[in-house]
Amino acid sequence: MWIKMKKIVIIVFCAFSISCASTLVTKTGTTKKTNSQSQTSDTVSQKPNPEILVGKQDRKALQQEPFGTWFTKNYKEYTIDETTVKELAPYVKDISIKAFMGTWCSDSKRETPAFYKILDNAWFNYTNLELITVTREKDTPEGFEKGLHIDRVPTFIFYKNGKELGRYVEFAKETLEKDILAIVSGAPYKHSYED
């Protein structure tokens, strides 16, 4: 009898789970719930999800709580390779970057603050940086990732005159500074997941 009752509970739970609405995290960090149940609107706002930011952002978004805690700590604790950053500085003057990261991702939390610290010390022009935060599925409601093969985050894509020079994916082959220098200087470089 107990086993039969347990099976019924599992079936009911599964049925309920399937009938529940899917969730979508917006760029402001609020969660929206969509469903086909009888409601006056197709979209109902739910409690904000403070751990996930999705869409185009700027540095200020990462410096606000709850993100500011890890961003500021990791930025301050990262020790840059000053010699490599000096070599890097002339190359980044005419480079544009698309940076994809997840505020939920430990690799992004580690690499993105360090990335900003390196760019700060290389006197990078931030009007040439597009920061895009993604969901756990590595996407955005607007589709900013479409056609760019964002499989892991962070992914930093470097462009010159609109042409991709290369990309840094998730973790360094050597160091973040040296990997960036290799990409922007045209030296042979394959990111961590390339053959």
From TrEMBL:
Organism: Aquimarina muelleri
Gene3D superfamilies: Glutaredoxin
Secretion signal, residue range per the UniProt entry: 1-21
PROSITE patterns (alphabetical): PROKAR_LIPOPROTEIN (PS51257)
Record InterPro entries: Thioredoxin-like_sf
Coiled coil: none
Keywords from the UniProt entry: Signal
Protein name per its UniProtKB record: Thiol-disulfide isomerase or thioredoxin
Pfam families, alphabetized: Thioredoxin_9
Highest taxon of the lineage: Bacteria
